[in-house]
Design a protein that fits this description.
The complex is a heterodimer. Chain A has helices spanning 3-17, 22-51, 73-80, 83-114, 120-131, 139-148, 155-180, 183-191, 196-207, 209-225, 228-233, 242-247, 257-282; strands spanning 250-251, 254-255. In chain A, helix 4 packs across helix 10 (209-225). Chain A is mainly alpha-helical. In chain A, 71% of the residues lie in helices and 1% in strands. In chain A, strands 1-2 form a two-stranded antiparallel sheet. Mean pLDDT of chain A is 87; it is low at 1-8 and 284-290. By secondary structure, chain B is of the alpha+beta class. Chain B has two domains: 7-232, P-loop containing nucleotide triphosphate hydrolases (Rossmann fold), CATH 3.40.50.300; 237-365, Nucleic acid-binding proteins (OB fold (Dihydrolipoamide Acetyltransferase, E2P), Beta Barrel). Chain B has helices at residues 45-53, 95-104, 112-126, 141-153, 171-188, 199-205, 223-228, 233-238; strands at residues 7-16, 19-29, 34-38, 60-65, 68-69, 80-83, 159-163, 191-196, 208-213, 216-221, 245-254, 257-262, 265-272, 284-288, 293-296, 303-311, 314-321, 326-331, 343-348, 353-357, 363-365. Chain B has a six-stranded mixed sheet with strand order 6-7-8-3-9-10, sandwiched between helices. In chain B, strand 9 (208-213) and strand 10 (216-221) form a beta hairpin. The longest helix of chain B is centred in the middle third of the chain and has 18 residues, at 171-188. The two termini of chain B are 36 Å apart. Classes of the chains: A mainly alpha, B alpha+beta. The A-B interface holds A 182, 184-185, 187-195, 198, 202-203, 206-207, 286-293 and B 53-55, 74-76, 78, 80-82, 84-92, 101-102, 105-106, 135-138, 141, 144, 151, 161, 168.
Amino acid sequence: MTASSVILRSAARERSALPPGVGRRLLVRWAVNGIIATFALFPILWGLSSSLKPADRIMEFPPRLLPQTPTLEHYARVFGDGASGYILNSILVSGATVLATLGFGALAGYALARFDFRGRGTLMALTVAVMSIPVASLLVPTFTLLSAAGLIDTRLGLVLLYTAYQLPVVIWMLYGYFRTLPVEIENAARIDGCTPLATLRKVVLPLSKPGLVAAALFVLVFAWNDFVVAVTMTSSEATRTFPVAIYFYLGFYGREWGPLLAASIVSIVPIVAVFIALQRHFMSGLTGGGVKG
Amino acid sequence: MTGMSTVTFRKVAKRYGPVTALEALDLHVEAGEFVSLLGPSGSGKTTTLNLLAGLIDADEGTILIGDRDVTHLPPERRDLAMVFQNYALYPHLTVFENIAFPLESRKPVPDAREIRARVERVAETLGIGALMARYPKEISGGQQQRVALGRAMVRDPRVFLLDEPLSNLDARLRIRMRRDLKALHASLGSTIVYVTHDQSEAMTLSSRIAIFDKGRLQQLGTPAAIYDRPVNLFVANFVGDRETNVLAAEPVATDGRLAVRTAFGLVDLDRPASAVRGPASGPLRLGVRPEAMRLDPAGDAPAAVVLTELAGADLYVTLRAAGGEELVVRADPRDGVPAIGQGLTVRLDPARVHLFDAESGVAVSHGGSDGSSPNP
């Protein structure tokens, strides 16, 4: 029996219990989801499989889907090369960037969302305009800027640059989220004795978890994955981030596919873990019940 | 109670571009008074409340709470409590934390034991003691309403602001909460400013009512004064369970006594002709409430019944005169329900008939024992 006939038969079974058309819709949905998942996941799964093959089997022809003799030698090599230090650098830089962008972004986004002040429209337009500047075009000027400030080849320098690049998007995202909150709740907090800052901290931010999580993940993915800025602004091993370290396996003497793939897989793990951990916060509905109507 | 305070508006105005939301408002609320701001939507009543709360900024004039000029103070420094139309509970906090919030947001913050005691006392008063650990979305609308009230009561604010707090409740619950609010006001003795578009709510709850229309305060007075002596047609129409009937009226001179001719016959107003104030030469309108008339099957029967509505205790009969003008009369259903098309005579109670200037709608003569001239 082929896989497709199994699906067809189970779809037929479902059709008997479900309203007409639902079985077919389920089948189509599974098929479409399957194609998309295969397309998205295949390179990663291929990388995972290859990272577990001995070095001389990675390029073998015809290629094998699964390693014949799985080995962790490449992973051992990666960590032997000091990966933990680079990973720590990445965690520090990404974490600090996320905190800084959310902190400044929440303050700016809240001001734009709720306060009427002179130049507000211009400021919002500027925030959006800045987003359209490609990072690559900023490399040279920001390199000069960073050297002048004495922050070249420091983790702090990277954090400042990442924050500057990502802040407009975060402001825009949080501005949009804050605007969806019912303003009466904030008015109530003000009348109950909160200053605007206390209102933000005690009422707005707790209600904005889904927005904050979305913005945090957006920044985290950028900061964790960034290669081009990090490779430009840092040179020493002490400040090297993980994506830059991975690049070094494409070395002088050829491509070391095994360690390269192993390191890539390692670099994916934390992001996936964070996404899974924060998954439930994507779901909103947190504001339900506070405001009637 | 230390909280009680007066509230004074002096020539306060608020404009949004070319639109005037509130025009030169003068209003004084005594300490401990329950004042309702009544009016249709867009009349300026909510603007007035938001100006007092500090949620919007006045363009002109001065607002005082007690002797303190609060015109440009932010809401958190005005020492108020407010109940919002949609309750505006903090969805991420439990009922206990919601009620404790105003205590924890102001310095000096009382210690945890004190907070617990005060929150529990308020919850006890409102009958929500069993809900302390629940979140707002887990309790019913009536309970949310009580939590919102509790959050306002837990401190001892100078003035309570209530913005249509009952409008989201069903009819029965609304009447019960009305009674509870009245009892609450009696026990707290605090100054309450209450916004509503429901005239019966304003009538039953208030010490005084301020009626707004088109950004202007129309009349400020006790419920009885507003009901008995409306200053203009708008107020006469807005207050009362049914609209006031308005008829074209032509003054008739009958040896010094005031009488008017209407489509429903000649009405002797039982007051001297001099009781009409102002330029009475122009056309007039007669205003009479459905409950200030009775039906009489005798007489010359100038009107025919076109509609009867039985509303439980009362029967509302719509009559049409030969000229097409209509009149709604409240009758007692125990006297029998008149047939459609039947001819009837209406007897108006002269003490409860008002005359208005047809052009401006301003009252020019009221009936009643205490004389005849409208409010000065």
